[in-house]
Design a protein that fits this description.
The complex is a heterodimer of chains A (483) and B (494).
Chain A (H helix, E strand, L loop, with lengths): L11 H19 L7 H19 L6 E3 L4 E3 L1 H27 L5 H19 L3 H19 L6 H32 L4 H10 L4 H19 L7 H8 L2 H8 L1 H17 L4 H24 L4 H21 L3 H28 L15 H4 L1 H15 L5 H15 L3 H27 L12 H19 L2 H15 L2
Antiparallel strand pairs in A: 1-2
Chain B lengths: L1 H4 L1 H19 L5 H24 L9 E9 L4 E7 L3 H18 L8 H20 L3 H10 L1 H11 L4 H29 L6 H6 L4 H18 L8 H8 L2 H26 L1 H6 L1 H20 L4 H20 L4 H32 L15 H14 L6 H16 L1 H26 L16 H19 L2 H19 L4
Antiparallel strand pairs in B: 1-2
Helix pairs in contact in B: 2-3, 2-5, 3-4, 3-5, 4-5, 4-12, 4-16, 5-6, 5-7, 5-12, 6-8, 7-8, 8-10, 8-11, 10-12, 11-15, 12-15, 12-16, 14-15, 14-19, 15-16, 15-18, 15-19, 16-17, 16-18, 16-20, 16-21, 17-19, 17-20, 18-19, 18-20
Classes of the chains: A mainly alpha (483), B mainly alpha (494).
Chain lengths: 483, 494
């Protein structure tokens, strides 16, 4: 019997990341006291190395490996590059925050790297099992990260909720997958797609399976009515962890939706369109209305995430390449905005004080006009007001939705956006119209200062020249959906 | 020729860049530098806008000073600018108002000066962008972006209830504009992928779509004008805004709504405009008469002028939906004239407020004995606000009433009633504030206007009288464009 080594080249970034993750874990064990920054540096090097590998091995064609369980196509490469950048930015923002809270040890960084690995596997999956494997690797790392602050009861509660509901959702997902397997006899995404398009299968069973899959996806994307975990986790987890949870995994979740819903059961678009419309509308309603009532900024942003994910789903509802491209664009923009927002929140957390009340933004314009202005841009962008990039994200999704003929859906989305604008405006009001409650000087490290200014500038510059990023998203989707 | 080619860009971006430069200084210790920079920037903005008038060809109905570049390929969005006889005077009005606003805030604004001055300059550029955009998305971006500086101006430098007013202002206008965006995307689909406003003018549309598009546009523009019954944000915003903010709001931002009707509603959906013209005329007349009556009972001077603005803007929408030359030209003249008069009225209230810190009519009385020069100017502007012949307020109203009487006697009758109500509320306020005996001891401490204030008042008075006595330079540039517009509206697009 001859043993054939599979073609490993598409998975080089994942393999490298796994090795680095283990290395960081070991280094953390040894160098905890003497070189506290070593693990941080190694993590950044790992991400940079991955980016380099992905860049060098880039090809415009899709390469399958591991018996067609793993694929490396343009969409995967694009999303992975975005994940590396996002995770790296996350870590730069959170370094001083976690070091002040004594979490600058190996666990945090190795968990980040394993979660990242999970995301990469999800993005590159071309098989239901790979998909599930990546998802669980990501989810388990995230559960642990939420629970990192063991002495905090609220964090523990959040982690418990996250874990139980997450496990339930994974169960849903598996159950849905098993039903689809039962009907089609395959777990390979491309194969399933062929069989469904062939049309000689039991449609009713497929739809039941689909319902479970959509429910599982809904949970991972935190869209209503599967959103209950998000506000608690956002509130309870350390801000650095929330920053991580709310940014990069959304990119991976988008990849997950693409692989599962579009490449896998895309033939059943008529069935899932209706489900997604309900999810999207409920999310926008619950997210926007729920956010109004919050006094905790992290909770408010959790509801804001719910509404944004709902909006993003609208692009997928339109079920064409333009729509998927606009959704991807929306997710990328959303991640850029989230990074900036949580970055600012961590800046406001001076010492071991946690900035998590809305009132912590009071009078920011007095205390530091520059950060106030960056937050202003971020808030207007989240609200979708031009000339910030949030406007184009909304525009492209609305355009796709209307092209698919759902004018009423676009009108509903717009009405909810007006409600949403209110709570973003409230933050601007606190910063610009109110007097500061304290005069604590905000003095971030230089790298954070530079990065957060860049982040604000990107919001504005992409708002004036969105062409490149839009074209990139469309290109990524086109080359993998059609291949 | 290169200069001609990028003239509009210069008019838009020069104030914006000066504004950004001022924002980066952001230090109240450099107050003098900031103020002078803002003044020079705004004057330069006015200066570069003057060639728009002198080099404008009044016998051409097509767009002039056109700039056309690809901007966002994916959506077929272009950086497409151009002006005609309707937008050019409005750009000049805007560029003219900005230096006045800067001077008006010279002494009064003491906190966060750079943000104040920067916001006004940036807004001036953005508004020029609104008036000269020929691409729907470009238009929309400028349109929405103009909300941001105004929101901050009301919220930071406004009065006690400023937060409520600022948020109300923002959300009202946002709701209207987002529906307009939906209409744009719909038109983009129907037209086969174009965001060009000029393409939309030629696009045939069935009546049902036209009506829906009209409603979407109506919500966006009616909120801005503002028309009854969506006018309620205006008094709140005005009362709480600082003087400069009120001037810009009344003189410039309200014109965006009127301009929107001329540029979008009428030519893009002409059949719906005809179909719904009765509704528009009735709403306009309600604004003219009913809001005029509301103005009569106001105790707060700024509120009174705000309501009088709504009533005067009613003439604009009335004139537009009469579909004849007098009506549309009258509406345009009314917009320009209202820009001068309401700006002047708000400035006059600001002059008094700076001294006594009250806007209540009851707190004044006998001002003339302490401020005779001011009282004379205030008299002129009050008369203009009441529509006295010889002032600019008369010209526009008279033209619209002339137009209305051709269509229906009762339209003209109700419209003309404003000459009575307008005189009543303005002059009654004037009487209570300026004449009579001094009841409030603080009035005795008043000092007459300073040189800076006299300068602004003189310039505004000159403009009010000029348009009132010799409106020809204004009407001649818009005549061909208006004729062309009316010819276009008369053709059905069904």
């Amino acid at each position: 019997m001859n043993f054939l080594l599979p073609n490993l080249s598409p998975a080089y970034p994942e393999i490298f990341l796994l090795a680095m993750g283990c290395l960081v874990l070991l280094t953390g064990l040894v160098a905890r006291e003497k070189l506290p920054n070593l693990t941080y540096l190694l993590t950044q090097i790992a991400l940079f190395g991955c980016a380099l590998i992905t860049f060098i091995t880039f090809t415009p064609d899709a390469i399958y490996t591991f018996s067609d369980m793993f694929v490396d196509d343009v969409m995967a490469d694009t999303l992975k590059m975005l994940v590396y950048i996002t995770v790296s930015v996350c870590l730069i923002y959170s370094r001083s925050y976690i070091s002040l809270r004594g979490m600058l040890s190996g666990e945090f960084f190795s968990l980040v790297l394993f979660a990242t690995l999970g995301m990469l596997v999800m993005i590159s999956a071309s098989h239901f099992l790979t998909l599930y494997l990546g998802l669980e690797l990501l989810s388990l790392s995230l559960y642990a990260m939420v629970a990192l602050r063991r002495d905090s009861s609220i964090a523990t509660e959040a982690a418990m909720k996250f874990f139980i509901l997450g496990a339930l959702a994974s169960g849903f997902l598996l159950y849905g997958m098993s039903m689809i397997y039962g009907v089609t006899g395959s777990l390979n995404i491309a194969r399933i797609s062929e069989i469904i398009q062939g049309g000689v299968v039991n449609h009713a069973t497929l739809v039941v399976g689909l319902v479970f899959i959509v429910a599982g996806i809904g949970f991972k994307l935190s869209v209503a009515p599967f959103h209950m975990w998000a506000p608690d986790v956002y509130q309870g987890a350390p801000t650095a962890v929330v920053l991580f949870i709310s940014s990069a995994p959304k990119l991976a979740a988008f990849g997950f939706v693409m692989r599962l819903l579009i490449e896998g059961v895309g033939g059943m678009a008529n069935d899932w369109q209706g489900m997604l419309i309900i999810l999207a509308l409920m999310s926008m309603a619950i997210g926007n209305l729920g956010a109004i009532m919050q006094t905790n900024i992290k909770r408010m942003l959790a509801y804001s995430t719910i509404s944004h994910m709902g909006f993003m789903l609208l692009g997928i509802v339109s079920a064409n390449v333009d729509g998927y491209g606009s959704s991807m664009f929306y997710v990328v923009i959303y991640v850029i905005m989230t990074l900036g927002t949580f970055g600012i929140i961590m800046l406001l957390s001076h010492g071991v004080y946690e900035a998590e009340k809305l009132d912590d933004f009071k009078g920011l314009n007095r205390r530091n006009p520059r950060y106030a202005f960056i937050t202003l841009l971020l808030m207007f962008s989240l609200a979708g007001i031009p000339p910030t990039v949030g406007f184009y994200a909304k525009l492209s999704v609305l355009q796709a939705v209307m092209n698919a003929g759902y004018i009423w859906l676009a009108v509903m989305a717009v009405l909810f956006s007006v409600i949403g604008a209110f709570y973003y405006l409230r933050i601007i009001k606190l910063m610009y119209f109110d007097e500061p409650e304290n005069d604590i000087f905000i003095s971030p490290q230089r790298d954070v200062e530079l990065l957060i200014s860049t982040n604000g500038l990107v919001i504005l510059l992409l708002g004036i020249f969105p062409q490149t990023l839009m074209a990139l998203c469309i290109y990524a989707i086109q080359s993998s959906v059609q291949s | 020729m290169l200069f001609d080619f990028s003239l509009l860009s210069l008019v838009i971006w020069l104030p914006i860049f000066v504004g950004i430069a001022i924002l980066t200084i952001n230090d109240d210790r450099n107050a003098q530098l900031i103020k002078w920079l803002a003044l020079i920037g705004s004057l330069a903005g006015l200066l570069v806008a003057i060639p728009l008038y002198t080099r404008f060809d009044p016998i051409v109905s097509s767009m002039q000073f056109v700039e056309y570049r690809v901007w966002i390929e994916r959506f077929n969005v272009h950086y497409h600018l151009g002006v005609d006889g309707i937008s050019m005077p409005l750009i000049l009005l805007n560029c003219f108002t900005t230096p006045l606003v800067i001077i008006a805030g010279w002494r009064v604004i003491n906190k966060r000066i750079s943000q104040y001055m920067g916001a006004f300059l940036i807004m001036s550029g953005i508004v020029n962008g609104v008036f000269s955009s020929l691409d729907a998305i470009l238009f929309y971006i400028f349109w929405e972006a103009s909300l941001i500086p105004m929101f901050l101006i009301i919220g930071i430098w406004g009065g006690p209830n400023r937060v409520y007013a600022a948020i109300k202002f923002f959300l009202y206008t946002l709701l209207g504009s987002l529906l307009m965006l939906i209409a744009f995307i719909y038109l983009y689909r129907i037209s086969g992928g174009s965001f060009s406003i000029l393409d939309y003018h030629k696009l045939p549309l069935p009546l049902v779509s036209q009506i829906f598009i009209f409603i979407a546009f109506f919500l966006a523009f009616a909120v801005k004008v503002p028309m009854w019954p969506v006018h309620t944000w205006l008094p709140d915003a005005h009362v709480e805004a600082p003087t400069g903010g009120s001037i810009v709001l009344a003189a410039i931002l309200l014109k965006l709504g009127g301009y929107g009707f001329i540029r979008f509603s009428l030519p893009i959906v002409p059949d719906a405009s005809h179909y719904l013209s009765d509704m528009m005329i009735v709403l306009s007349l309600i604004a003219v008469v009913y809001i005029g009556l509301i103005a009569l009972v106001q105790a707060d001077m700024k509120k009174l002028i705000a309501y009088s603005s709504v009533s005067h803007m009613g003439f604009v929408t009335l004139g537009l939906f009469l579909f004849n030359v007098y009506g549309v030209e009258g509406a345009m003249v009314q917009m320009i004239s209202h820009g001068f008069i309401s700006g002047a009225m708000f400035f006059c209230v600001g002059v008094m407020y700076d001294r006594l810190h009250s806007r209540q009519i009851a707190d004044y009385g006998g001002v003339v004995s302490k401020m005779p020069v001011f009282a004379a100017f205030f008299m002129l502007f009050s008369m203009a606000n009441a529509g006295l012949p010889g002032t600019s307020g008369f010209v526009g109203e008279f033209m619209v009433i002339m137009a209305a009487i051709k269509i229906n006697f009762w339209y003209a009758f109700f419209a003309a009633s404003t000459l009575i109500f307008g005189a009543a509320y303005t002059l009654w306020m004037y009487k209570r504030v300026v004449f009579g005996t001094v009841t409030n001891p603080n009035v005795n401490q008043l000092e007459d206007v300073t040189g800076r204030e006299v300068l602004i008042l003189t310039i505004l008075a000159a403009m009010v009288l000029w348009v009132g006595l010799y409106p020809l330079p204004l009407t001649e540039v818009m005549h061909v464009t208006v004729d062309n517009l009316l010819a276009h509206i008369a053709r059905s697009k069904l």
